[in-house]
Amino acid sequence: MHDGSGRIVVQNLSKQFGAVNAVQNLSFTVEPGSVTGFLGPNGAGKTTTLRMLLGLVTPTAGQATINGRPHSQLGNPARVVGSVLENEGFHPSRTARNHLRVYAAAIGVPDRRADEVLGLVGLGSAADRKAGGFSLGMRQRLALATALLGDPQVLVLDEPTNGLDPEGILWLRNFLRSYAREQRRTVLVSSHLLNEVEQLIDQVVIISQGVTRYYGSLDQLRKSQQSRVLVQPADPGALVKALQENGITAVSPTPDGRVAVAGSSVQQIGDLAAKAGIAVYGMQEDHADLERMFFQLTQGQFAGGPGQQPQPQYQGPPPGYPPSGPQQQQHWGGPQR
User: Fold this and answer.
1) pLDDT tens profile 71-120
2) What per-residue string of b and e applies to 131-159 under the rule 16 or more CB within 10 Å gives b?
3) What is the DSSP letter of 55?
């Protein structure tokens, strides 16, 4: 019997395909009432991890549980967890309503639930249309409706915004926020659409090249990244020299000819430029966003071998588990998707 908590726990999860370490010692939790983003470049191991969580792939080591149990021990899993890993499982000649009724019968929910979830995902008017004529965005909505049939505590979605237009993305964002926060459900979203995910998630797990780069709150990740000031000087070289002579060394040129300065205020930079007689045409404070942080954390994925990996920024193991040793903390993540 599962514990009914709605909690996802991934603990020291690993998967090898022959000589390839697809996922290594991956650990994180997803709590009810929040939306967690699962981010990484293509080939980072996201889909492999989700398949292990959903019982579709057997781990080499470690475990992934939902409500304290592996997926295979949940009894009627569709009443606990709904998932969308792809949106191609539709018979092209079957209507949206009939597609959902087939799945409803399989998991033991009444036929009327099909119309309820079609309304939830905005496909009520398309209930009698054949799925073969649906656009990519409509198929994505139908896949989500299928996942919602059992009114699950937990939603696991792989690239859920694929094929959605801007209006659909806004709808999905609002729907998942409400589902997680107002209904106290658990939502895990895998995506590479970083700007969209940043407006949706509370927690984030970032993986790349066999290593967990970060696991923790989005706010804490933002705080860990220094903001910078972008300066447009008349003489970039002279400004860099003046700043360095005054102990400001976190200085770098940008491709558009400006100078990026970290760890200093606009006022301090302006005073030093004036003292050195350097004209400044503009300054802009640039606060870290998720996209830039993502690229900073995953930039080694395709740039070199394992010896060039940056260190992970891991916030600790799931509650109730002993901490992993330093050797383990350097090898979380996965290179294959």
Assistant:
1) 999 988 999 999 999 766 789 999 999 999 999 999 999 999 999 999 99
2) beebeebbbbbbbbbbbbbbebbbbbbbb
3) T
Chain-centre distance for alpha carbon 246: 40
- 200 vs 272 pLDDT, higher one: 272
d(CA 337, CA 333): 11
For Cα atoms 317, 320, 321, give the angle at the middle one, nearest 5 degrees.
50
Domains defined along the chain, listed by start: 8-223 (3.40.50.300), 225-290 (3.30.70.100)
DSSP 274: H
- By CB neighbour count within 10 A (0-12 exposed, 13-18 middle, 19+ buried), where does 32 fall? middle
**Contact residues for 336 (Cβ-Cβ < 8 A; gap 6+):** 17, 20, 22, 23, 43, 45, 48
Structure-block tokens of residue 84: 């969308």
Task: State the Cα torsion 330-186-199-313 to the nearest 10°.
Answer: -10
Beta carbons within 8 Å of 300's beta carbon, 6+ residues apart: 208, 209, 308, 309, 310
CA 175, 180, 184, 186 torsion: positive or negative? positive
Cα-flanking dihedrals φ and ψ of residue 265, to 5°?
Answer: -95, 165
Task: State the alpha helices, DSSP H only, in the chain.
Answer: 46-53, 96-107, 112-120, 136-148, 166-177, 194-198, 218-224, 236-245, 266-275, 290-298, 326-329
Cα–Cα nearest to 188, from 326, 52, 87: 52
